[in-house]
Specification:
It contains 6 helices and 9 strands, in the order αβββαβββαβαββαα. With about 180 residues, it is an alpha/beta fold. A 5-stranded mixed β-sheet has the order 7-6-3-8-9, covered by helices on one side. The protein has a two-stranded antiparallel ribbon with strand order 1-2. Strand 1 and strand 2 (about 40) form a beta hairpin. It is globular.
């Protein structure tokens, strides 16, 4: 009985790993301020493949994955996809301190333009709307805002990007143009 109680408590504290939104659903819009206080909407990135990355400067697993996300960004930012042109990251920080958030962006060379946060930590509006109970958590959406992958971390992100690339016709691959 005691073990069952401990297991139940552990599951509650860890939060649900079941994502709020599923593959095939349209990702709800997010509208949060960037470093300058300007509101940046997720929907402003329509037409591109977008990696929605819920993270924080204090999250060691998040920071450990940042070099891979940067590498994928550099490799695929100009790629043609089945449903979108280009790839970018919409980074939603769950930080409370702007200085820590900004330093992490600089230190980890997060070179994309779309970094947003309301600096409310776990009370972040987007995190609540997306049911985020742990970070890192992510969604990959296509040019129409449709979720194509839930939490593609590490090499899974690149696999999803490759899978969604626009395939060349056999004619073009043989003769060009």
């Amino acid at each position: 009985m005691k073990q069952l109680l401990i297991l139940s408590l552990a599951l509650v504290l860890m939060g649900s790993t079941d994502p709020t939104f599923k593959v095939g659903e349209v990702a709800p819009d997010i509208a949060l301020p960037n470093m300058n206080g300007d509101i940046v909407k997720l929907s402003s990135l329509r037409g591109q493949m977008v990696f929605i990355d819920f993270w924080a400067s204090w999250c060691k697993p998040c920071r450990k994955e940042n070099p891979q996300i940067v590498a994928d960004y550099l490799k695929y930012k100009d790629e043609e996809f089945e449903n979108g042109t280009g790839f970018t990251v919409y980074g939603v920080s769950l930080d409370k301190k702007k200085d820590a958030w900004q330093k992490a962006i600089t230190k980890d060379s997060l070179i994309w333009d779309t970094h947003v946060s309301d600096l409310k930590g776990w009370k972040n509006e987007a995190a609540i709307a997306y049911g985020i109970s742990s970070v890192p958590m992510s969604y990959l959406i296509d040019g129409d805002g449709v979720i194509v992958a839930v939490n593609p971390r590490g090499d899974k992100l690149e696999k999803e990007l490759k899978k969604n690339r626009k395939s060349e016709s056999w004619f073009k691959s043989l003769f060009g143009n």
